[in-house]
Amino acid sequence: MNLEGKTKEEIIETLQTTKKQERADEIKATQATTRVKLPSNGLINPSITEVTLKRMTTMQSKTLFTNNDPNFLTTLVMSCIVEPVNIKTTDLHPNDIVYLLFILRYISSPKEVVQRTICMNRNCRHEYNVPIKIQDMSVNYAELENINTVCTLPDSGDVIQFKILSEGELNECDKISDRKIRQNNIEYSEQDWTRAINKVAYMIQLVNDKDFKTFDEKLKYLENLSAYDFEYFNNEYSNIINSFGIEREIISSCPRCGYTNEVEAYISPEFFRLV
Ligand SMILES: [Zn+2]
Fold this sequence. Notes:
binds zinc ion; 12 strands; alpha+beta; three-stranded antiparallel sheet; 275 residues
């Protein structure tokens, strides 16, 4: 690659195109199995930074047509990982799962994914299909040396040591919340809050180097923090989560009015319609 005599913008552009090209070449559509580097990059399990994904069989796709599993997409991805053999949902971050789903779709069918979108121009509102070119989507890998899981709260000065929750832990946490909601007859309007605060309690390991005796003690601690501290912590956590994973923003221009629309590629029921 010759970068001589180019402006900074041109160099960045060239580097980005090259990076994307490498990704597209790396993973070929309809390849039966493929090695995939995980966006979490060892953040969840230091010994698992790559997996081998195999295109889905009819049996595995069954989970898409049954409705008894609320985590059916995770189930699908897990069943398509052939290596490491004993991988668990506690080894992966939700961002890994999403990325693996996109790659799984890509290797399972050569048919392009399209997503229905509505033009955001208020005078237009035209509905059209946006092609989702999975091979062009970029992915960020967690930079472990830049990730700090210790946070000093601005108001109280407390030092919180926390962990990034895996897919498995988040599911476990949801189960704990469900149980609490049932046992304490928590009203519908307060259920989201219960889930959210339980999740934060689950993330926190030590405060000022001290452990909590019980989960409820941790909840009490959180409830008594200033709202500013609580939000500050949540923001620190989100910044880490948003620093890795597949970039799902797709820019398209409306075929009717030319307006530039930005949509987030999501996994719809049509996503896995392979033919
Ligand atoms: Zn339009």
